[in-house]
Amino acid sequence: MKDDTKTMEGRETATLIVGGKTIELPVITGSEGEKGIDISSLRNKTGYITFDPGFANTGACRSAITFMDGEQGILRYRGIPVEELAEKSTFVETSYLLINGHLPSSQELNGFSVLLNDHSLVHEDMRTFFSNYPREAHPMGILSSMVNALRSFYPRLEGLSRVEELNVQVTRLLSKMRTMAAMSYKISLGHMVVYPRQDLSYCANFLNMMFNTPVKPYALDDDLIRALNVFWILHADHEQNCSTSAVRLVGSARVNLYAAISAGITALWGPLHGGANQAVIEMLEKIQINGGDFEPFIARAKDRNDPFRLMGFGHRVYKTYDPRALIMKKVCDIVLAKLNRKDPLLDIAMRLEEVALKDPYFVDHNLYPNVDFYSGIVLRALGIPTNMFTVMFAIGRLPGWIAQWKEDHDDPNWKLVRPRQIYTGPEQTHYVPIEKRG
Ligand code: ACO
Q1: Banded pLDDT at 8 (limits 50, 70, 90)
Q2: HEC secondary structure over 3-58
Q3: What pLDDT was estimated at residue 139?
Q4: Would you call 199 a catalytic residue per the annotation?
């Protein structure tokens, strides 16, 4: 295929010669100059489809939410570098930015915060419903079920415009998912649930709901609240990753927002995606039990016959250091210094990173630490149990999922997602009655 043809109108096209036909395909260019060949007419014109397992070369939508450049390690939300947001913004403000497309005025931020506060309580019947869930159930399973159940507990609102109803649904989700996460933790311990407080910020409220008890009040600390804000800002969106694509795909069938988000939570649960932060800590703990010797783990990761991978390394898009991992490493140092704590897993992680970054296998494969490599150490220091790490990621990713779902819904060229396939099964055969089967 030639990719540099200019049409008569001067617009770039790509020429494809296939099956004895020559066709011109338009090239579309994004605002940062990245290019894509629009193949939407390919099958109609040629009878051919494209084949791209894992969609590594496929743009599934146009999106104005997040820009990332995997070669240069750039991540921006609505044009703003994530480094600036991590330094200056809060998770609530960044959520507003992602969902509404601009930084809020004081009045808008205030209105958003009021709605978040108004919708922070969870229906009491939900609490009793989920208190009978098996204690050993993974919190991600509980969370996806609870979010899906929100539609039943909070059906459609009458008398509101579409925009007003969406605002309520969005703030309800953002606020309640945080409350439900803390609630399911308390239920898993058999402790009484702590309710959200009107006088606390979003992040402070979460820490209080998680760790306050009537016999041991939790002392809120500004540095730890800030660390949680940064953790959630860094996770807030990452364009068309696996869980976001799940939200868009399920949402394309026009299910309600809660059901689409529930699909995203389920996808995020996987150890190759959001589950990696839990898997990193489990791997570092195994290395610690092994006396801190990580060489066997590196050897296994390099062995083509062994499915083992170094968790927290590698990324589908980043072929350099994940910019979020750099910030997370700094947050790690701040939190541990604040708590006056040393974490032996951090020492192992830093030595492992140093060795892996020089190893020809990791260099040749462009494998660098991703956000999950250091995030587990931050969460551990905050007191979050390992099996809730992915829930923390899910709360952070929620504004991104909502923004992507909304963008899809507002797109006048919206289409039900329905990929095709290259069929490799048997050619037509005939039904054989059971008594005649050999
Ligand atoms: N350790 C060892 N080898 C690796 C690793 C790793 N962590 N990651 C990729 N590779 C190797 C593969 O074995 C493969 O080698 P080969 O070409 O010699 O066969 C090559 O790199 C490419 O691997 P793919 O799986 O095709 O690359 P992909 O882009 O699909 O992988 C992924 C991305 C899934 C994240 C992968 O790097 C991985 O499994 N990492 C570990 C899990 C992890 O940390 N996930 C978190 C991702 S970030 C996030 O979701 C927030």
Answers
A1: very low
A2: EEEECCCCCEEEEEEECCEEEEEEEEECCCCCEEECCCCHHHHHCCCCCCHHHCCC
A3: 87
A4: no
User: Phi and psi for 185 in degrees, rounded to 5?
Assistant: -65, -45
Contact yes or no for 256/68 (Cβ under 8 A): no
Rounded to whole angstroms, the Cα distance separating 394 from 431 reads 47
Going from the Cα of 239 to the center of ligand 1, the distance in angstroms, rounded, reads 18
User: What is the CB < 6 Å shell around ligand 1?
Assistant: 272-274, 276, 301, 309-316, 365, 367, 370-372
For ligand 1, what atom is nearest to the CA of residue 309?
Answer: 1
DSSP state of 192: P
37 band by pLDDT with thresholds 50, 70 and 90:
very high
314 CA → ligand 1 middle, Å: 5
Cα–Cα dist 269/181, whole Å: 14
- pLDDT value at 166 more than 90: no
User: Starting at the edge strand that comes first in sequence, how are the strands of the sheet with 2-6 ordered?
Assistant: 2-6, 12-18, 21-29, 35-37
Quote the percentage of the chain above a pLDDT of 90.
76
223 is catalytic: no
How many A from CA of 276 to the centre of ligand 1?
11
Choosing from 316, 352, 361 the residue with most ligand 1 atoms within 8 A of its CB, the one to mutate for a pocket test is 316
Helix (H) or strand (E) holding 9: none
Q: How far is the CA of 310 from the centre of ligand 1 (A)?
A: 8
Task: Report whether 19 contacts 43 (CB < 8 A).
Answer: no
How far is the CA of 428 from the CAs of 49, 436, 437, in angstroms?
A: 22, 18, 17
Please compute, for residue 313, the number of CA atoms within 13 A of its CA located in the half-sphere on the CB side: 26
Residue bearing the CA closest to ligand 1, atom 24: 316
pTM of the model: 0.91
Amino acid letter, 297: F
Q: Whose CA is nearest to atom 32 of ligand 1?
A: 315
Catalytic residue among 238, 315, 322, 408: 315
pLDDT one-digit tens code per residue, 86-98: 999 999 999 999 9
| 8 Å CB contact between 146 and 184 | yes
Angle at 368 between CA 364 and CA 373, to 5 degrees: 150
Q: In this predicted structure, what is the pLDDT of residue 2?
A: 55
Residue matched to tokens 């490493």: 329
